[in-house]
Amino acid sequence: MPSMKPAKVGLRTRLFQLIFESDTPAAKAFDVVLVILIFLSVGIVMLNSIAEYHQQYGNYFFYIEWFITVIFTVELALRIYCLDKPLLYLKSFYGVIDVLSVLPTWLVLLFPGAHTLIVVRLLRALRLFRVLDMMTIEGEKRLLLDALLRSRHQIMLFLFTVLMLVTIFSSILYLIEPAEAGFSSIPTAIYWGIVTLTTVGYGDITPITPLGQFISVAIMLTGYSIIALPVGVFSAEVIRALRAERYSDEACPGCGRHHHERDARYCKFCGTWLDEETADPRARE
Amino acid sequence: MPSMKPAKVGLRTRLFQLIFESDTPAAKAFDVVLVILIFLSVGIVMLNSIAEYHQQYGNYFFYIEWFITVIFTVELALRIYCLDKPLLYLKSFYGVIDVLSVLPTWLVLLFPGAHTLIVVRLLRALRLFRVLDMMTIEGEKRLLLDALLRSRHQIMLFLFTVLMLVTIFSSILYLIEPAEAGFSSIPTAIYWGIVTLTTVGYGDITPITPLGQFISVAIMLTGYSIIALPVGVFSAEVIRALRAERYSDEACPGCGRHHHERDARYCKFCGTWLDEETADPRARE
Amino acid sequence: MPSMKPAKVGLRTRLFQLIFESDTPAAKAFDVVLVILIFLSVGIVMLNSIAEYHQQYGNYFFYIEWFITVIFTVELALRIYCLDKPLLYLKSFYGVIDVLSVLPTWLVLLFPGAHTLIVVRLLRALRLFRVLDMMTIEGEKRLLLDALLRSRHQIMLFLFTVLMLVTIFSSILYLIEPAEAGFSSIPTAIYWGIVTLTTVGYGDITPITPLGQFISVAIMLTGYSIIALPVGVFSAEVIRALRAERYSDEACPGCGRHHHERDARYCKFCGTWLDEETADPRARE
Amino acid sequence: MPSMKPAKVGLRTRLFQLIFESDTPAAKAFDVVLVILIFLSVGIVMLNSIAEYHQQYGNYFFYIEWFITVIFTVELALRIYCLDKPLLYLKSFYGVIDVLSVLPTWLVLLFPGAHTLIVVRLLRALRLFRVLDMMTIEGEKRLLLDALLRSRHQIMLFLFTVLMLVTIFSSILYLIEPAEAGFSSIPTAIYWGIVTLTTVGYGDITPITPLGQFISVAIMLTGYSIIALPVGVFSAEVIRALRAERYSDEACPGCGRHHHERDARYCKFCGTWLDEETADPRARE
């Protein structure tokens, strides 16, 4: 019956606005509930990992977990229901997250051994990004990502060089340090080298020979001052990104090209007068 | 008698100038005494926390503490007395600090058990900010706060993403590391993860499995290079703030060009008089 | 026979293109194989340093190592063969690396004692830089190196001053700290000082006297905030480099204004044709 | 005899050039010898602090030490001799260093107990700065110092706020952590707090209660991201200092004021045409 279709569409549309958008009060409330449930479920996974809490409140956690999982599953079903191309959604980043955030609990039902899967639930936290996306951080995120993309070559080159140096220096310590120092193999030495270069410095492995300590000092000073490279490059990129504002998005009336600086009066490509309100001073001549 | 009232007002005004302002020599002396007393009382709380000092000089500390508390109480009373709207002051940041800096000592008198309150006295240190505020740091503070406010979104987004990554990676280590490694629960693992990502690296918990060490290395390198993000964003904001402080955003009425320094009176490009309110002195010639 | 010479030349030319260039499919494949072999041989040196792996798969590693060494030796021979000035190549950075990456294995054949030389093989990793050089990182590398060169004086001065401070403060701790603290000699104290200043903080040596802890705190705060110097200088240099890359330093022949973007053909202020070599297309009209 | 006086003056002048300047080959050689002696004596103080070296080569060190001290004393005498105002020199930074670098050794002769004074010899290292000063680092040093001076207010405010936060948070840990955690007193807790905030993280004191670990995490994240403040401020100042180049040091022909930007064509103070070679376009009108 045609009378039903619009109704059905209406329902799907309303569901879509409720779940996927956040401009109506109902949708806002929906987001808030979602965020609370996400934090709740993540908190439970964490508390449940603490031995005594697990013993005392284990089954409460169990029930709450199932309660949340059912809600999330229904929500997932509704998302799929009110979309015209559910597959596209399921293949998207958030689609995968949504599936991953309910799957483990159901799987444990089938395979009791799949206990480690429980941790996968923590991926639910990633759902918070969707709510963030709906808020006004779009600009910030783009700025950061843009600057990251622009500086990725320098930063990768930087990391690669750093790893080279660490590999070579660490192997030297593997050779010169006695067994009790803990440099048991080259991979372990490299682990130590990165612990040192990044200035983490656990202290689980430390050089004891004077030469070893001297080389460590070299690695530390390198790691301490070489951080200037990514920071400098990234700062420069952020500044450039912030300055992008100084380009007007007006096109040149002469050649139609964009990317003119705000203080430009003539098109830098074809020399046309850019300010259409006033007359070109050269016209007088 | 009306003759008293002005006197009384005069007293309150003089007290106000003495306590709340710092442009008269007396007020300056008052501030100096205040700073000394603050440092003295904070120092005493600290020394008193050292066992042997407490035993030896405990009662000296006790007397000095009471001496300072009485002075601060009198000062607080005077502040309230010489203000027309004392409640507004008591609700303000500094009002709360002032009350908190005398209350604990009196409370201990009533409830001898309230020993932990003693530490609240350390909040007295916050009173130093008031003296700082009277000094010339206003500009610096505004610059820093302004840049912080402008970059808070990026930095919060940065912290949020970092916490996500740490949560997920740490839980993996909680799963793969054996009991003796110390990853006893997910919260503990996250504590370790932040200790590692921030390059603090206590070493109280360290991975011992090769895979665990490999993931730690990933966290370290992330934490080591990701610091570039807040630093870059903040640098950019400070640079923008410093520049904004130097250039006016007014356009030249003659050539419409921007980017004039605040102290500019004539356009540096076309020589036009910039201040449209007044007349160009050259016109007179 | 003259007929052979061109053929020979042709062979050398083709070899040259295959080995030293990377624009033909064959050359690209050659690079890929090279990269794989480098990673393989580096990985083997690492795995071989792990005791149990060495026992189980020691001889496999041995054979693979010889296989790779032979290939690299042949490659080196071909490189020398197809160059007109092989000596220049052998004296170059990559030439030395290429020799160092095959020599150790052969030397172990002659002197079985030269086991430590094995680690020299890790220098093979440096060969990866050659492949990187052929890729599009040239610009990034130049940018970083340029900024590093421009800021090297400041950074050296910075490191020198830092080392001074560390030397002096560390010696004080060597004097005041008791034996059990671990400050056994001034060099050791300096090692500790740099571990502290660079915020590595192993914790293998820590001050235990209050005065010692106070001085350490001074060193930490210095190291924590002084990092701003190299970072600030380097950021400034990168920003300058990025800007220089974007703006030409030519002045406009019409209005003498600077700060034109490199792709500008007309002055954005007065619309004058910037390229003085050629004629303004508009003149024709 | 008057004939001697010029000779004497000549000698003093020559000595002055030799010791205080570095433009003649002799003076350069003098500096080189000085640098070598400084490094030698500093090296000896260090080696002598290592127990076994002290036992084996103790008296060699003793003789070399005396040899260097005598040379430095003679040099000091000559410096005083060839100066017209020796007192001014002795009161200057380098004068004090010069005296301190010979005094301890002589004092030990008088008071054998003054062993700790030996370490004062390390201050000799500071003499290297004089040689550095004669080299071309003047510019770099000025740039760094200038930027440091300009940003000192922000950085002091930053350090002050940081110390506040650390004091308050650390005292909380002093209250909540059990004795075995090592927070034995508030000063110790503050020591731990700065070890944590500066991301040094020795691990000699670590929180063990969940709440304590939570607060530590807050301190770590603060210390990890707050470093952006001094770095950002300092970067901005360095960039401003580097940009100072963009101001021409030409004075305005009209009002004689300086500080015009390089791209300025008219004085921003009096509107006079700055470029004296060409004519003011406005003259035509």
From TrEMBL, chains A, B, C, D:
<dbReference type="InterPro" id="IPR005821">
    <property type="entry name" value="Ion_trans_dom"/>
</dbReference>
<feature type="domain" description="Ion transport">
    <location>
        <begin position="28"/>
        <end position="236"/>
    </location>
</feature>
<feature type="transmembrane region" description="Helical">
    <location>
        <begin position="214"/>
        <end position="236"/>
    </location>
</feature>
<keyword id="KW-0851">Voltage-gated channel</keyword>
<keyword id="KW-1133">Transmembrane helix</keyword>
<feature type="transmembrane region" description="Helical">
    <location>
        <begin position="93"/>
        <end position="120"/>
    </location>
</feature>
<feature type="transmembrane region" description="Helical">
    <location>
        <begin position="29"/>
        <end position="48"/>
    </location>
</feature>
<keyword id="KW-0407">Ion channel</keyword>
<keyword id="KW-0630">Potassium</keyword>
<keyword id="KW-0406">Ion transport</keyword>
<keyword id="KW-0812">Transmembrane</keyword>
<dbReference type="Pfam" id="PF00520">
    <property type="entry name" value="Ion_trans"/>
</dbReference>
<feature type="transmembrane region" description="Helical">
    <location>
        <begin position="182"/>
        <end position="202"/>
    </location>
</feature>
<feature type="transmembrane region" description="Helical">
    <location>
        <begin position="60"/>
        <end position="81"/>
    </location>
</feature>
<dbReference type="InterPro" id="IPR027359">
    <property type="entry name" value="Volt_channel_dom_sf"/>
</dbReference>
<dbReference type="InterPro" id="IPR028325">
    <property type="entry name" value="VG_K_chnl"/>
</dbReference>
<keyword id="KW-0472">Membrane</keyword>
<keyword id="KW-0633">Potassium transport</keyword>
<keyword id="KW-0631">Potassium channel</keyword>
<feature type="transmembrane region" description="Helical">
    <location>
        <begin position="155"/>
        <end position="176"/>
    </location>
</feature>
<keyword id="KW-0813">Transport</keyword>
<protein>
    <submittedName>
        <fullName>Ion transporter</fullName>
    </submittedName>
</protein>
